[in-house]
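Severity: low
Component: inverse-folding endpoint
Summary: output formatting inconsistent between runs
Steps to reproduce: submit the following structure tokens with default settings.
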């Protein structure tokens, strides 16, 4: 009789919106099941190619390209050449350590992992972080045992699935952020969270909007995460400095709990994890969704809060520096509206997202840790 080691494989990535939730789930699962071995499947071109090796994770990186937003011939190459080779690579990889269950988190590497799992008869769980399911999860949903949803609204796009196949778990938020609660400051502080895809619009228009407000005699401070390099940071900081605005500008924020705690109102894109963190903190927010985000998922994410009065949704095509200045003025200096948004946002948060996600995996790992078999 020999003890069987439980194994979790997480497939997907490409952007932080997929990679960070995958890591949060992996860390939570390791904490719950001490003997659990976790591996990852990702793409050589994705964020995971840098982040996962730096963490010392066991990761298989594939030569894969996306199929959305590309030409017909490129799609054929991916579907008829890259994908079959990637699936075969996974199949060989699993000969030594076949996973107990595969979790697909979205992105094109997730598709190959799911296909390999179907061939290898590995149970499949999908994890959709956004309010509208992505192409991969919509296409492969019928092969999964369960689908974990970060937003309840995603269920409306998956009505073709069997009853109870989906479960609203929410997205796991870091513990240090979960301990932060929003509060108002005098003078108020505006947070600007760029720093990744789509930061250019925020970097171009928010500083100018703030200059306009300062010229109107408004008293406030700014903390601006701009991404990019040191030159870009310096250029943005110069705009605030020349206008006499108290501002802290950084390319990357290493202390997000402190960042959230110092703000009265935040302007940001509407990635799934940003929305989850805003909810848990109860931070009033103006979301400007990334216009070219796949399936317009950021717009759906933002709308989930704006429909409840927990945030404001501002479409990028409708705004410039002048209109944003007015929107900020109408919100940042209205203490009653900030309180209303705070209460509505906090009421929407899911505090036990980690327990809900681990509850789904317990169908396999609750037993796998105790299972014995003849080898």
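Observed output (run 2 of 3):
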């Amino acid at each position: 009789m020999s003890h069987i080691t439980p194994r979790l494989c997480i497939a997907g990535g490409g952007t932080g919106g997929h990679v960070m939730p995958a890591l949060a789930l992996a860390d939570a699962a390791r904490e719950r099941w001490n003997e659990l071995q976790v591996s990852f499947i990702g793409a050589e071109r994705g964020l995971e190619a840098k982040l996962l090796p730096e963490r010392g994770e066991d990761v298989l990186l594939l030569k894969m390209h996306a199929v959305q937003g590309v030409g017909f011939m490129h799609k054929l190459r991916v579907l008829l050449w890259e994908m079959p080779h990637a699936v075969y690579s996974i199949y060989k990889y699993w000969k030594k350590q076949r996973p107990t269950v595969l979790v697909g988190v979205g992105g094109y590497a997730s598709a190959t992992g799911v296909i390999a799992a179907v061939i290898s008869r590995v149970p499949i769980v999908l994890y959709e972080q956004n309010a509208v399911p992505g192409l991969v999860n919509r296409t492969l949903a019928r092969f999964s045992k369960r689908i974990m949803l970060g937003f309840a609204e995603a269920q409306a796009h998956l009505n073709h699935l069997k009853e109870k196949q989906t479960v609203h778990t929410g997205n796991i938020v870091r513990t240090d952020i979960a301990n932060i609660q929003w509060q108002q400051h005098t003078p108020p502080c505006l947070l600007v969270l760029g720093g990744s895809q789509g930061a250019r619009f925020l970097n171009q228009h928010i500083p100018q909007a703030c200059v306009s407000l300062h010229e109107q005699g408004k008293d406030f401070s700014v903390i601006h995460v701009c991404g990019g390099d040191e030159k870009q940071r310096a250029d943005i900081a110069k705009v605030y400095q020349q206008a006499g605005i108290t501002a802290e500008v950084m390319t990357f924020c290493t202390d997000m709990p402190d960042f959230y705690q110092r703000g009265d109102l935040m302007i940001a894109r509407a990635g799934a994890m940003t929305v989850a963190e805003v909810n848990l903190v109860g931070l009033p927010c103006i979301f400007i969704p990334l216009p070219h985000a796949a399936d317009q998922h950021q717009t759906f994410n933002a709308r989930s809060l704006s429909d409840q009065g927990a945030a404001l949704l501002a479409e990028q095509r409708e705004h410039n520096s002048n209109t944003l200045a007015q929107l900020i003025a109408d919100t940042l200096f209205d203490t009653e509206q900030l309180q209303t948004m705070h209460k509505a946002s906090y009421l929407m948060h899911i505090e036990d997202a980690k327990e809900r996600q681990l509850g789904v995996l317990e169908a396999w790992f609750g037993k796998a840790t105790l299972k014995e078999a003849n080898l």
